[in-house]
Amino acid sequence: MPCLSVFRRRLSVCAMLVLAGACRTVPDNSITLRFWAMGAEGEVVARMMPEFERENPGVHVRVQTMPWSAAHEKLLTSFVGEATPDVAQLGNTWVPEFQAIHALEPLESYIARSNVVRPDAFFRGIWDTNVIDDTTFGIPWYVDTRVIFYRKDLLAKAGYPSIPDTWAGWRSAMEAVKRQQGLTRYAIFLPTNEWAQPMVLGLQAGSPILKDGGRYGAFSDSAFARAFDFYLSLFRDHLAPVAGTNDVANVYQEFSRGMFAMWITGPWNVGEMRKRLPAELQHAWGTAPLPGPTGDASGVSLAGGSSIVIFHASPHKEAAWKLVEYLARPEQQLRFSRLTGDLPASIAAWRDSSLSGDEHFRAFYTQLQRVRPIPKVAEVEIISSKLIEASESVIRGHVPPQRALASLDRDVDQILEKRRWILAHEAKAVAREAAR
Amino acid sequence: MKRGPEGAQARAAWYFLAPALVLIGLFFFLPVAASLLLSVTDFDIYALGNASLARFVGLGNYANLIHNPTFWTAVKNTFYFALVGGPLTVAVSLGAALLVNARAVRLRGVFRTVYFTPFVTTLVAIAVVWRYLYHPRYGLLNYLLAHVGIGPIDWLGDPRWAMPAIIVMAIWKNFGYNMLIFIAGLQSIPEELYEAARIDGAGALRRFRHVTIPQLAPTFLFVGVVTMIGYFQLFAEPYVMTGGGPLRATTSLVLFMYEEGFRWWRMGVAAAIAFVLFAIILIWTLLQMRLQRERA
Q: How many A/B residue pairs have CB atoms within 8 Å?
């Protein structure tokens, strides 16, 4: 540190400056990494930075926290304004979009040299969300997948000590709960304004969601149509209420009242349930991996979560990679998980008893072995929103399912027109290059 | 430019106007021209990364809008809101102005302030409170309706009720401003006219019909035009309260434009929607002014 420098003169000057409260001299070769993170993760990760800075003298990390609701816009705007950060947290479904605009640094060469970041140190399905055309553009930070949260007491009363692992068994369990609970209560809450549930069921039935390398929609194909029919039948037979997340004022209260006995949702609700459910119910709720059409192997779920990416325009890519490696280490993953409640993406971190010994997190561990990414195209968010529109039009607007799926495919094909054009454009350029 | 003193005067005028003109040109006409250009391209997220991926599509964006059912839903919702909400707002404002202006009312200043308060309150704060009022189970409105035997209405969750709910809130928020203008209009009506009408034997209703209304005609035109222009640009209310749902029942043109532009980054389409909205407002305003002139 310069204040302890051997030069006396400098020392005395520095001492004076210290007295003046202004001795903040930084080594000339120091660099400042700009790291953007979202919401609670951003607040927490700032606390992990001093240790990284101690390990890497001369590297200073400036963490900027942004709210999730504004993050996507801010990141894109920063790209347009050529003011992207060095490192950022990115929702892993956003990776294809930022890759499409060439904002991200490919990480293959860094991974090849690393002894911390190895693909097999992470859940396969989660790692896969960052790989586009065989190139890796992000490292998993934390994971998010959907499982069933359920009232063990209500299911037991209906004769089901656990949730069956096939669709048929699951459905029978729902019917039994409905019979037990009566007309005004429901077996499962599937918010009509969420795309995750129909999407997951589609993936479970073997639908690729998009076909021909993400060029066309595959919603009216038989696999998705079968899943869609199963999903709709739960509303048709009053096993699920026709309600979105906005229509239920306090979902935890309704869950404790037994308004519904099952709910498909994510890991953040483990903490919420512990905080919000009354004490007498704390032993009455559980989590379970999703059932599948033909048993547990087919019970896949979403490979969600956030990745850490390095921006292509960063002038400090080596230091940025060090930060990525630091955050990917199992012990840091575990520490981060303790601070936020997010689930670690590193498999080694799960060996810790606070996770592997926890009855509510165990279902997530099982589920994470079988997660699938949603199609890795830049347009995936708008396609998901179209899926909500299509399913709501059937559930609330009484449009026949076949018609809704056909028009969904039409919309999706139109949305993907630009992508098809660009793929053709690139293929032509490659052919021209080869001819030369 | 002319020579001589007149020419010098004109030149001086230009110099004085220049800063303002440059600013208007730079920050108003240039962006408008740029978005007109944008509206004939398919500028999108890909073009953001590589500008050469933007294609000239001519009127393609406009043609696609015509075939887009969501666009027509947005047009329909916008007209629903403006044509029902606009006249109702004007009527409520006039009613409030008459009440507050009446001689018999005490504490006129207090009422004026109270009625004006919603207009200056942040919309997001208002929307949050109104969402509580509208809550199907625990909301005040349904609680009151239950007393007169009307079953619970899912105000913001039912596609049939969502737009009326938004209209009611918008009227409540906006009538205060128009009310002040109407009060000013009312106070500028010469007292002699009322006196003369009274001497001729006109009752309160006839005085209102034959003195107040004709005298307020210019005020009506102003209030009508300003309200309609504002209402055609409906955005924040559905954005905060319903997100455009349920089943797109409250998606307005501006909300649709926002979604296309800043959620999906289809700037070309968004720019095209902006120009369609511009055309609608322009035509409507001309129509309104023409109607008023004919009547006058």
A: 56
Q: Dihedral (C-alpha) A107, A113, A115, A118: value to the nearest 10 degrees?
A: 40
Query: One-letter amino acid identity for A222?
Result: S
- pLDDT tens, residue by residue, A173-208: 999 999 999 888 999 999 998 999 999 999 999 999
Flag whether pLDDT at A428 surpasses 90. Answer: no
- The pair of structure tokens assigned to A152 is 């063990």
Whole-angstrom Cα distance, residue B10 to residue A429?
A: 58
- Report the DSSP beta bridge partners of residue A35: A63, A87
Q: Are A63 and A35 in contact (CB under 8 A)?
A: yes
The reply to whether A73 touches chain B by the CB within 8 Å rule is: yes
Interhelix angle A222-236/A380-395, rounded to 10 degrees, is 50
Reduce the DSSP state of residue A133 to 3 states and report it: coil
How far apart are the CA of A119 and the nearest CA of chain B, in angstroms? 28
Determine, for residues B49 and A102 on separate chains, whether the beta-carbon distance falls below 8 Å. Answer: yes
Q: Which amino acid is at A126?
A: I
| In B91-213, beta strands by DSSP E | none
Helix (H) or strand (E) run with residue A31 in it: strand A31-38
CB neighbour class for B58 (10 Å; exposed up to 12, middle 13-18, buried from 19) = exposed
CA distances, A385 to each of A192, A380, A411, B37, B230 (Å): 12, 9, 11, 28, 29
For residue A306, CA distances in Å to A42, A197, A396 come to 12, 20, 33
3-state secondary structure of A339: helix
3-state secondary structure of A385: helix
Query: Contact at 8 Å (CB) between A293 and A204?
Result: yes
Q: What are the CA-CA distances from residue A315 to residues A34, A138, A220, A312, A321 (Å)?
A: 11, 18, 47, 9, 12
The CA-based dihedral angle spanning residues A107, A108, A112, A115, taken in that order and rounded to the nearest 10 degrees: 30
Which residues from chain A sit within 8 angstroms of residue B135, using beta carbons?
A: 249
- Which among A73, A123, A15, A259 is positioned nearest to B259, based on CA atoms? A73
Distance CA B173, CA B120 (A): 9
Please report which helix (H) or strand (E) contains residue A70, including its range: helix A68-80
SS3 content of chain B, % helix, strand, coil (to 5): 75, 0, 25
**AA identity, residue A223:** A
Is the CB of A76 inside 8 Å of chain B's CB atoms? yes
Task: Give the residue on A whose Cα is nearest the Cα of B156.
Answer: A247
**Prior bond to B246 cis, omega within 30?**
yes
Contact A322, A56 (CB under 8 A): yes
B137 with A249: Cβ contact below 8 A: yes
CB-nearest partner of A247 from B46, B157, B247: B157
Q: What is the pLDDT of residues A106-153, one digit of tens each?
A: 999 999 999 889 999 999 999 999 999 999 999 999 999 999 999 999
State both tokens at B113: 């302030």
Out of A125-129, B85-89, B136-140, B176-180, which region has the weakest mean confidence (pLDDT)? B136-140
- Amino acid of residue A337: S
Render A292-307 in DSSP notation, one character per residue. Answer: BTTSGGG--EE-EEEE
Interface test with A, best of B155, B247, B250 (most A CBs within 10 A): B247
Q: Looking at the complex, does the CB of residue B53 fall below 8 Å from at least one CB of chain A?
A: yes
- In angstroms, the CA B278 to CA B284 distance is 10
Pull the structure tokens for residue B214. Answer: 């004709």
Q: Which one-letter DSSP state was computed for residue A308?
A: E
